[in-house]
Amino acid sequence: MRIDVVTLFPGMFEGPMSESIIKRAQEAQVLDLRITDLRDYSKDKHRKVDDRPFGGGAGMVIKAEVVFDCLEAMELAPGARVILTDPKGKTFNQKLANELAEAPQLVFLCGHYEGFDERVREHMVTDEISIGDYVLTGGELPAMVMIDSVVRLLPGAIGKIESTHEDSFYTGILDYPHYTQPANYRGWEVPEILRSGNHGAIAKWRREQALLRTFERRPDLLESAPLTKEDRKFLKDRCGWVPSV
To answer: Is 152 marked active-site?
Structure first.
């Protein structure tokens, strides 16, 4: 996958995008990550990219022509998703991460000041996405969050892609508890079932623990999770849970 980031602060990506899974994905040529300084497309001798808003008001607005020149120079691939990081957009979640991971190219526009000229949103952007109902200084941190979430889903980015399928939210519910050595630490023991070697029983225990954890911490997820008849029976018998619809 190719991912482009258009930003006024490219230095912000030097650390996070050169470590851990993102680094390995680039080394394995699973990911082609390109960071573009929007100021490189300014026609102003001072590399200015913004101007005062028509109609007055506080703040500055990033000019449409700079963004259009930048994106058109990229020669976007068919099916590319141009993502505006914006608190007014739809909220990012695992389902959306899975969807974005199928795209041939992602382009993240990192906003600042009062945002972009509306014509960018109307004629270049395919997706407006927020990572939550709060305000950040700019769109760089949301872009990093989404990139990390998407890249780890790409085949070859993680040693065993199956491990991502057990993550919280991937299956619609939270993940089950994990343990490792020692089996007894300060008197706290690893559940006996995990040491039994009975893989069928272990799988059943893990599923039930995931359901219990979801019921206790995020019961709202159960309403839309793909639950089996066995799951529903377990939740009803153990927790008294029944779907609202």
So the answer is: yes
Single out the catalytic residue among 37, 65, 114, 166.
114
User: Does 34 fall in a domain?
Assistant: yes
The single residue of 167, 175, 206, 208 carrying the catalytic annotation is 167
Residue tagged active-site, from 4, 81, 87, 117: 87
223 is catalytic: no
Q: What is the pLDDT of residues 5-33, one digit of tens each?
A: 999 999 999 999 999 999 999 999 999 99
In a domain, 157, yes or no: no
**CATH number of the domain to which 208 belongs:** 1.10.1270.20
CA distances from 23 to 2, 34, 161, 172, 187 (A): 14, 13, 17, 28, 39
With CA atoms as reference, report the closest residue to 144 among 36, 1, 29, 3: 3
Q: What is the pTM of this model?
A: 0.79
Q: What is the mean pLDDT of residues 138-158?
A: 94
**What does the alpha-carbon distance between residue 63 and residue 61 come to, in Å, rounded to a whole number?**
6
Instruction: Respond yes or no: is residue 167 known to be catalytic.
Output: yes
Domain residues for 194? 184-239
Question: Nearest 5 degrees, angle CA 181-CA 185-CA 187?
Answer: 140
User: Does residue 122 form part of some domain?
Assistant: yes
Residue 155 bears catalytic tag: no
Which residue has tokens 């109609």?
A: 55
